[in-house]
Write a structure and sequence with these properties.
Elongation Factor Tu (Ef-tu), domain 3; 6-stranded antiparallel barrel; alpha+beta; about 400 residues; OB fold (Dihydrolipoamide Acetyltransferase, E2P); 5-stranded antiparallel beta sheet
Length: about 400
């Protein structure tokens, strides 16, 4: 029995040293199952984003043209007003009296010339009664002198007296003509004073300024948008206040809100991509789901040397009045459209450790390709890199994929 124990151990050792058969490998588990997508070329609208604060198309500070106490103010902040509309009335009592005084002074001056109104153009003073009377005296003296000078029996003293009388009559006429011209000049001055008094009386009514040239305005808001209008932005006076034209005293601030301006600064690298007339989409926080159309109106010609930026001015129609002056706005300027831009589903892009890449698939082999991401949407993203236009890329299985991995389509 003792002999059998070493023999059993020897057999066990021999059996344990025999080589084992290798395990049977599953070829399906040696490849990475993936899904793929093709590169999709698209036409992409390039844009530039600019931020800024909305301001009125134009702002006007109104000041009184005459001194006086405010009798009435017909508007307040927020009111919409139109050109020619009366906004404020200054007490006109003193100016009415000034007009009456100037009119009476003019009438008195005209009465001396036997006129009702100031004659237009050149005026023949020979028609003035004072000159006519002097002219008649000259004619009578001339006849008397001629008669005495032609009579042989007339004494020398009588002829000399007639000649003197003629000279006096002629001098009197010249004086009458000069006086008539002075009276006419004085009457015209009185008329100017009356016009000034009447204008100051009109200036007691502070009105909305006249609009811009209609063609320019229609180009901004459209021919069917209606006339230009202002909004009262600020009221700085009250009824009963004493106002003066000098020094300047502001009483109302008007702004044009039918069209707003957005002034924004951009890096100088965008100068070559911008031009007047480009379309713009504007968004504000007050209306997060709304987009307001605009255009690039003006590009400033200089670059700020300290910030290396330049200014662009965007105009946004605001006929409905939704946008407010002073609001922060974000503008997207549409510059150009690029065609055949390669795009992929967002799931095809892998980002790890600061590296962005995709895996192209060719002959069931995955190849890692570094890329950069451009514009993106919810269902596609622009990829920039060395990508064949007809490439197929992996969209899943990235946890097992590496450069050179064998792949198979997921069933």
């Amino acid at each position: 029995m003792k002999r059998l124990v070493p023999l059993f151990g020897f057999c066990v050792a021999v059996l344990g040293c025999r080589p084992q058969a290798p395990p049977i490998q599953n070829t399906e588990t040696a490849t990475v199952p993936i899904t793929i997508a093709a590169v999709q070329p698209r036409a992409i609208q390039r844009t530039i984003t600019a931020n800024g604060t909305l301001s009125g198309y134009d702002e006007t500070m109104l000041t009184p043209k005459v001194d006086g106490r405010i009798r009435a103010i017909f508007v307040d902040a927020g009111d919409v007003v139109y050109p020619g509309q009366t906004l404020m009335l200054t007490d006109p009592t003193d100016y009415v009296l000034a007009v009456n005084d100037a009119r009476r002074a003019l009438e008195a001056e005209l009465a001396t010339l036997d006129l009702k109104t100031i004659p237009e153009g050149e005026f023949d003073v020979e028609n003035v009664p004072l000159v006519k009377r002097a002219d008649a005296s000259v004619l009578n003296a001339r006849r008397q002198y001629a008669r005495l000078n032609g009579i042989s029996g007339a004494s020398r003293s009588e002829v000399d007296a007639a000649e003197t009388e003629l000279k006096v009559a002629e001098a009197t006429k010249r004086d009458a003509v000069t006086n008539a011209k002075a009276k006419l000049a004085s009457a015209r001055w009185r008329k100017a004073m009356l016009d000034t008094a009447e204008q100051r009386l009109k200036d007691c009514e502070l009105k909305v300024p006249e609009p811009l040239e209609s063609t320019a305005w229609c180009a901004l808001v459209g021919t069917s948008a209606g006339p230009l209008r202002y909004t009262v932005a600020q009221r700085m006076a009250s009824v009963g206040d004493m106002v003066r034209s000098m020094p300047v005293q502001n009483v109302l601030k008007l702004v044009i809100t039918d069209v707003l301006k957005l002034r924004a600064t951009l890096p100088e690298k965008y100068i070559g991509e911008l031009r007047a007339g480009q379309k713009v989409e504007v968004k504000v926080e007050a209306y997060p789901d709304a987009t307001f159309p605009g255009i690039v109106a003006r590009i400033h010609p200089t670059v700020d040397t300290s910030s290396r930026t330049f200014m662009v001015e965007i105009q946004i129609p605001n006929r409905e009045g939704k946008l407010r002056i002073g609001s922060f706005a974000r503008a997207t300027i549409q510059t150009r459209t690029d065609t055949n831009v390669p795009t992929l589903p967002p799931s095809a892009v892998v980002r790890f450790a600061g590296i962005t890449k995709i895996f192209t698939i060719e002959n069931n082999i995955a190849t890692a390709v570094p890329v950069e991401m451009g514009m993106r949407s919810t269902d596609w993203v622009e990829v920039i890199g060395k990508i064949p236009p007809d490439a197929k890329v992996a969209t899943s299985g990235f946890s097992q994929l590496a450069d050179g991995s064998k792949v198979r389509l997921r069933k």
